[in-house]
Amino acid sequence: MKMCESCGENPATIMLTQVEGRDTHSRHICTECAEKMGINVPDPLREELDSFEEYEEFDEEQEEFSSVDEQEVDEFVPPEKRCYRCGKKESAFQKDLQAGCRSCYDTFDGVVREKLRANRRSRYYHGKPYHYAKTKGFHSEIEYLRYELDRAVKKQKYELAAVLRDKIHRMETGL
Fold first, then answer.
1. Mean pLDDT throughout 102-131?
2. What are phi and psi of 114, to 5 degrees?
3. d(CA 87, CA 74)
4. Where is the UVR domain (predicted)?
5. What residue numbers bound the domain in which 158 lies?
6. 71-101 pLDDT, tens per residue?
7. What's the structural domain count of the chain?
C-alpha cells in the first residue's frame, strides 16, 4: 500500500488529481492530511447514521429491542451479509453473480463455491475439455490422457500430472 506523499507516516487512502490545462498531477494522501487541507472526507459510519430520518426514531427502536423476550430473540434473523468494501448485498450477488469489487469474492466465498459445485466446475482451469481431443485425431481417452500428461510435465504442472497419471493407471487396470 502506498504511503501518504504529504506526511509519509500513514497509508494513502485518497488520490487527488489536479488538472491544469492539459497537464494532470496526482497525489496520494492520507485522510488526516486531507482534512488539514480542508478536503471533506466522507465517514461511512456517519453517512449510515445520517441516513436515519430522525435520531428519536432510532432511540424508540432501541427501547423496543431492550424489551424483547427470549422467544423473539430465537426468531431473530441476522442481517444480510454485505461486502465490507463496496457494500454489495449477498442476495444481489447471488442473483446476478457480478462482483462489485475484488473483495466480494472473499466476502461471498461460500456462494462462489456453491455455484461452482452446482455447475460441476473446479475452481482451477484444467485446459480444454476432452471433446477437443477428437478433432486432433485421438482414438482413445487413454491416449488423450497420456498426451495431456506429457503436456503437464513439460509445463511443470506436477500436481495435474500426478492426477492424470493416477487416472491412466486406474483405467488401464480396470478399477
1. 74
2. -65, -45
3. 27
4. 139-174
5. 131-173
6. 555 566 677 888 888 989 998 888 888 888 8
7. 3
Residues 111 and 160 both lie in one domain: no
92 shares a domain with 41 = no
Q: Say if 74 falls within a structural domain.
A: no
Specify the pairing of strand 23-29 against strand 14-20.
antiparallel
pTM of this structure: 0.29
CA-closest candidate to residue 118, choices 89, 97, 88 = 97
CA–CA gap between residue 157 and residue 134 (Å, rounded): 23
- Distance between CA 41 and CA 143 in Å, rounded? 63
**Cell triple for residue 72?**
423473539
In a domain, 72, yes or no: no
Is 71 inside a domain boundary? no
What distance separates the 2 farthest-apart alpha carbons in the chain? 77
Q: Establish if 75 belongs to a structural domain.
A: no
Q: What tens digit of pLDDT does each residue of 55-76 get?
A: 555 556 666 665 555 555 556 6
Same domain assignment for residues 59 and 4: yes
